[in-house]
Hints:
The chain has helices spanning about 30-35, 65-75, 95-105, 125-140, 220-230, 250-260, 285-290, 300-315, 315-325; strands at about 5-10, 15-20, 25-30, 45-55, 85-90, 110-115, 150, 155-160, 165, 175, 180-185, 190, 210-215, 235-240, 265, 295. It is of the alpha/beta class. The protein has two domains: about 5-190, Rossmann fold (3-Layer(aba) Sandwich), CATH 3.40.50.1170; about 210-325, Rossmann fold. The strands form four sheets. It has an eight-stranded mixed beta sheet with strand order 4-1-5-6-7-8-11-12, sandwiched between helices. Strands 13-14-15-16 form a four-stranded parallel beta sheet, sandwiched between helices. A two-stranded antiparallel sheet has the order 2-3. It is globular and about 60 Å long. The relative contact order is 0.11. The model has no long low-confidence stretch (mean pLDDT about 100). The protein binds asparagine. Asparagine (ASN) binds near residues 13 and 91. GO terms for molecular function: asparaginase activity. Its EC number is 3.5.1.1. Keywords: Hydrolase. This is asparaginase.
Amino acid sequence: MNKKKVAIIFTGGTISMTVDPRIGAAIPSLSGEQIMSMVTNIDTIADIEVVNFAEIPGPHMTPQKMMELKNLVNDIINKDDISGVVITHGTDTLEETAYFLDLTLYTQKPVVVVGAMRNSSELGYDGPSNLAAAVCTVISDKAQNKGVLVVMNNEVNLASEVTKTNTLSLDTFKSLTYGPLGIIDNNVLILHRDIIRRQHIHTHKIEENVDLIKVGVGMNSKFIKFSIDSGAKGIVIEAMGRGNIPPTMLDGIKYAKEKNVPIVIVSRCHSGRVLDTYGYEGAGRNLIDLGCILGGDLPGQKARIKLMLALGKTNDINEIKKIFEEGIY
Ligand SMILES: NC(=O)C[C@H](N)C(=O)O
């Protein structure tokens, strides 16, 4: 049987890092070719094409670089001889880039984002095993038409659902609300369930001026007001529980309505979606009446990516509300 051809795009992250003896800490330093030389026997399962895009840590990723990466993935995946694409990425922002790609790429072919939690100078470097699992996922026919996937520690998750849950564990990427899509077992992709809903935001633009505010007990409106006065085009609020805020923040919400700045409400809880269950002052029902948009089960950082893309497409708050709420509320 002919081996499938997989393109691997390297962007940096711990998977590309070694400890620099001068500073005694890890920095990106390995090329795609150097990393692939550690993924022994990978040539027995697929033909690999290495593409070096960047050598940056996750926190250095930007919305503009995500857009460039999306365009590159698009060019590569449309080639007839390419079966799918793997992207290596720093895990700190991996879920944001993966979700960005999920919302913007139009392809049935598998796209997998992968990283590592231990760098190549550490005992138990998990880069090679994660890369091998990512390639095994991409060459599986079952990975077709699933949107963008995240593969780490032999677990396969949807970019739209997964989040980094632990600062150091190898088993850090979890879909806390729904559980994993599947696993890699003995080099084979085993699916536990299917994907029910997939969303696209058709835009080539991204609005970078979107802020994220986390709510704590007794907070006031100062950050919301500052954000609007300094030019934010949209704000995501990580609210409490089901999507509630202290009444002392309502002035800020009213100010946003006055200035036509969309506010998306998500929860600071790690799983479950927001809903207008409660009717007290500052609760979900009050926020909806004041024009806020519900962000489902997304964590703040992913709701922000979605709002940036929605604002890249339109400034119409009703259309943005549809992008977030249609089909789930
Ligand atoms: N495990 C990692 O990749 C974390 C690293 N700080 C990064 O995001 O680049």
